[in-house]
Amino acid sequence: MWCGPVAPCCHDRAAHRNRRASRVRCVTGTNVRSVTTSPAEPARFRSAVDAMNAATVRPEIEVGPIRPPQRLAPYSYALGAEVLHDETERVPEQSEGDAFGRLILLYDPDGDEAWHGTTRLVSYIQADVDESLAADSLLPEVAWSWLVDALAAHGEPLTALGGTVTSTTSVRFGDIAGPGRAHQLELRASWTPQSDVLAPHVEAFCDVLAYAAGLPPAGVARLQR
User: Tens digit of pLDDT for each residue in 106-127?
Assistant: First the structure.
């Protein structure tokens, strides 16, 4: 299942953020901005899009519509999300400060046998992590538990959940800016919601993004050092 392209490793964080912002046009605020759908689209698909845009997320995360894939299903919609860190803020211990992702809605009125339904959600998350976390052999299991627990916490029924977790290390050589070693966590997953209430799925996805970025729990302030 397609979960979106992996962003290339950039020479410096500012360039990485600027390039990513050019293709993930996020909007500021705690509510996802709704978009206009075509009258030719099925009513259930339009309702699903509206339901996704009804999600409320924490203010550190910007969310907005992005270009969806065109060939995976008759109808598709996508949200891009990025964790923002104050440029003057100390980087949290469990993240180098860059975390972003996308959540894609696929809809096939005829249903898909592999989906066990007519609607499929496909997620992709990438986050920079520190060396100690990247070296933890249990990182894939821990990251997967973030998703499972977040979906369970939001309480909406789902089926056919599956995915992969990948931990990578990039080593820079020669005349190239940036840290000598950079560590990334990637989580790809898809599942079939069993109701038309999709806002909790978006909120769960954003919770996982926050975990990957090393943000404190919502409502808990980070101590300044």
Answer: 999 999 999 999 999 999 999 9
Residue 106 is assigned to a structural domain of this protein: yes
Number of domains in the chain: 1
The reply to whether 149 falls in a domain is yes
Concatenated DSSP letters of 104-146: EEEEEEEEETTTTEEEEEEEEEEEEE-HHHHT-TTHHHHHHHH
Sign of CA dihedral 11, 17, 18, 19: positive
pLDDT digits (tens, 9 = 90+) for 140-166: 999 999 999 999 999 999 999 999 999
128 has pLDDT over 50: yes
- Which of 33-37, 39-43, 48-52, 217-221 is the most confident on average? 48-52
* Rounded-to-integer distance, Cα 192 and Cα 179, Å: 39
CA-based nearest residue to 160, from 203, 200, 128, 116: 116
pTM value?
Answer: 0.77
> 45 with 75: CB under 8 angstroms?
yes
Q: Can you tell me the distance from the alpha carbon of 148 to that of 105, in angstroms, rounded to the nearest whole number?
A: 19
Domain hosting residue 33, numbered range: 13-213
Q: Is residue 54 part of a domain?
A: yes
